Amino acid sequence: MNKTTNQIRQDFLNFFKEKGHIIIPSSSLVPYNDTTLLFTNAGMNQFKEIFLGEKQRDYPRVVTVQRCLRTGGKHNDLENVGYTSKHHTFFEMLGNFSFNDYFKKEAIEYAWELLTSKKWFNIPKNKLWISVYENDTETYRIWHNIIKIPAERIIKIGDKNNSQYDSENFWQMGDSGPCGPCTEIFYDYGSTDIKSSIDFLKNENNRFVEIWNIVFIEFNRISQTKIISLKNKSIDTGMGLERISAVLQNVYSNYDIDIFQELIKSIFASSTIKNLNHISLKVIADHIRSCVYIIADNIFPSNEHRGYVLRRIIRRALRHGHKIGIKENFLYKLVPNVIKIMGKSADILKLKKDKIEEILKAEEIQFSNTLNKGLKILNSEIQKTYNNVLSGKTVFYLYDTFGFPVDLTEDVCREKKIKIDYTGYKVAKEEQKKRSNLKNKFYKNYNNNIFINDECIFQGYKKNKTKALVKYIFINNQFVSKISKNENGIIFLNTTPFYGESGGQKGDIGKLYYKKSCFIVEDTKKYKKTTGHIGKLISGEIKINDYVFSEIDENYRHSIELNHSATHLLHAALRNVLGNNVYQKGSLVTNAYLRFDFSCSKFITMSEIQKIEHIVNIQIRKNILIKIENLDLEKAKLKNAIALFDHQYSSIVRVVSMNNFSIELCGGTHTKRTGDIGFFKIISQSSISSGIKRIEAVTGENAINYLHKKDSDIQNISFILNCNQSNIKEKINQILIKTKNLEKKIKQLQKQEKKYYIKQLLENIKNIQEIKFLSHIFYNYEHILLKTIVDELKTQIDNTIIILVNVIDNRFTILVQVSKKVTNWIAAKKIMEIIIDQTNGKGGGKKEMAEGGGVYTIKLPIILKNIQSWINIELEKKKNNKCI
Q: Which CATH architecture does the domain made up of 559-708 adopt?
């Protein structure tokens, strides 16, 4: 009987446990303390610091089953998923590690024993081939002399393009980090014997599949051209669980192993296709595993960084679901299936099942309309293609207008063998960017036509007042040589202490002055590299080339600084409470309050808000010195400084640190110590779009004033309710209960009243030829009750025209009901048109029912009376025309 995938996983752990290895749990898919990686892509990621000698090892021998994701950079398998038999976005990496303990000989012997011994995997020895790094003679000798592998089955792989250490058998995690030569073990799926290494290298029909890679970590790559030796040598191995499962279960494709087949069958059951080997089934099966594990590690769909990768995978899966006829939301329904098939690896999924389902479902609903519209347009445009090339403008139009991802367009085109005009796409994108820049380039209250190719030196980090040269003056967007008293304009200087609005921080206010001239600065904006001081001259005049003193309003700036420093503390506290998936999406820092937008798909509870507040206020009370330094960007990354992922930074960046609690790249101004903030209070939280939350808060004096107002409001409420502040809640609950009881009584009275009205109305029915006519005006009645009265009357009389009016506060609403048989002669909509035409009201409807209303007029009773005459005339006309 073949081993199940879950059994194979456990056997691997058990084998190395017997060899003295400690079983270490899988680390997160989000690499810890490593800015060089988007996701964990290998088993050794969590041990990188140990390999580099930066961290002491707890155990010399370790074995893991590591969750891995390869969707970008050097290791990107996304485009191959579904189209090949061995590639996945998410996979499990079986790995054993030695930290300066055993090295090449033992590592190779352990691998050979596990793979070939009858007690374990029992793979025939003649089915295994070996590759080694050409310059690694020691490894070659171990395989040939000790393990007794024939020379013809050991393949030496050299460097490419005469570039040292650039070989398929020289392993490295990324562009930098631990690396070293490796030896790979291949399984031969062929049924005929071959002895030539040339046949192996040709690998026709993908006969040979790599199943295990043993890396000898003995170097550290500093850069593309620099590699140094490590003091301690280590072993890093990796064997894909899905690949070895395929071998041991006697199938060629990873998608034919037990866990994938069970998942594929559940997807197949929801589709309209008949082919269980359809590519889309494989894509969805792979992608759903990626999605659930990414979300389990607190990454949510967004438009950047890791969140974008998740969104891309989800949308690709949805597109393939659409392709095989799945019309309803389906991804979230697969979560229980994934948990079922993954065995012990699903423990993390079980804890977060509801959260995973909620996020997947929300993303599916959000994207479903985009997918349907985009595919319809794309398929139509593909049919119009010339020389099988899709226009770049079309690709950009789909993305810009409908939000249809470019990678999905690429996916569809690849399947249909259509090429994309990428040059045309880039041109269209750049044109749109230029249009957007023109719209947003200048101060919004002016005519958007100021352009100054000059620089203004900002001295506001250290000075509040400077002497500066006036270089440009604009009035009504026109360049002028001077500005006079009572004129509004923008003044540009060669240097300034005024902070121009950027990074969410509001611009400074203050004054520019010299002798009798004074210009009040009401706002400060950035114009590329220069700064515009926007305001009004209240005395004298200022001319080009004049020297003026520029002085900010220190109290205004200080209030902004308190809120800006508090924003950094808030960001750190949010990540502390809600998880590291929280990233800034926007901010506004003013002198009065701060606003912070961030990624978060869950509802934030009041207890979490209070915890966030508490954490921020603790940091304020610690009175931490706020450290500001200019660092090389790479050094800033090593400090784990938080940055905006869609922002382009220069090589030197400004880092604002509050101990290790908050470290961010920031160009804004800050207070000297956290204690200066005084007090922090969140005043509101809201959701501004899917997956984006907003918090507004106040600090210092404004926070105190806010609490004073709240106290005052509570005191006034308690006075109105005639109770103590301590039992307001109890008093309000009593009022609510009393109100509900009164509402019940009112409904009972209205029910009795309705019976009375119906009886009265039935007694006042008038006959207009064969039609029963009924009209009545109610005063201060609920409109909804008119409908219930009409419904009741309909059951008691046939061939009727009913007009009910309700008058409240000098306005009226009207309801017209006509029996179905009567609509052949008189329509409710026509009656409504006559009434609203004569009352200047509004309304409409259909043949049987119409509604309307307007300002009450004393003519209304007369109009209703005249309606009776009009009905009579209309019926006579129908008779004469033999319509009755």
A: 2-Layer Sandwich (3.30)
User: Distance between alpha carbon 778 and the CA centroid of its chain, in Å?
Assistant: 53
The encoded tokens of residue 832 equal 């409504």
Q: Quick check: helix, strand or coil at residue 564?
A: helix
Name 298's Cβ contacts closer than 8 Å, sequence gap at least 6: 30, 579, 580, 581
Identify which of 269, 253, 243 has the alpha carbon closest to the alpha carbon of residue 337: 269
Does the annotation place 568 within a ligand binding site?
yes
Question: In a 10 Å sphere around its CB, with 0-12 CB exposed, 13-18 middle and 19+ buried, how is residue 39 labelled?
Answer: buried
- Residue at token pair 């389906």: 330
Separation of alpha carbons 140 and 108, rounded Å: 11
Q: Which residues pair with 698 in a beta bridge?
A: 681
For the segment 716-731, what is each residue's pLDDT rounded down to a tens digit?
999 999 899 888 989 9
Which of helix, strand or coil describes residue 107?
Answer: helix
CB of 694 closer than 8 Å to CB of 595? yes
Q: Write b or e for each residue in 194-227: b if 16 or more Cβ atoms lie within 10 A of its Cβ, otherwise e.
A: beebeebeeeeeebbbbbbbbbbbbbbbeeeeeb
- According to the model, what pLDDT value does residue 438 have? 41
Q: How far apart are CA 801 and CA 768, in angstroms?
A: 10
Q: What Cα–Cα distance (Å) separates residue 832 from each residue in 129, 840, 845, 853, 868?
A: 88, 12, 8, 10, 13
Provide the 3-class DSSP secondary structure of residue 436.
Answer: helix
* Angle, helices 406-415/305-323, rounded to nearest 10 degrees: 40
Q: How far is CA 849 from the centre of its chain?
A: 46
Per the DSSP assignment, residues forming a β-bridge with 99 are: 234
Fold of 457-552: Elongation Factor Tu (Ef-tu); domain 3 (2.40.30)
CATH class of 764-880: alpha beta
Structure confidence by residue, pLDDT tens digits, 79-93: 678 678 888 899 999
Q: Is 666 annotated as a binding residue?
A: yes
Arithmetic mean of pLDDT over the chain: 87
- The candidate with the shortest Cα–Cα distance to 127, out of 269, 248, 264, is 248
Query: Are 115 and 121 contacting, i.e. CB atoms less than 8 angstroms apart?
Result: yes
Hey, how many other C-beta atoms are within 10 angstroms of the C-beta on 656? 22
C-alpha distance across the termini of the chain, in Å: 85
Whether pTM > 0.85 for this model: the answer is no
517, 541 contact by CB (below 8 A): yes
Domain spans in the chain, listed from the N-terminal domain onward: 5-256, 258-373, 384-439, 457-552, 559-708, 723-761, 764-880
Mean of pLDDT values over 418-430 = 84
CA distance 693 to 80: 35
Would the annotation count 21 as a binding residue?
no
The amino acid at 665: L
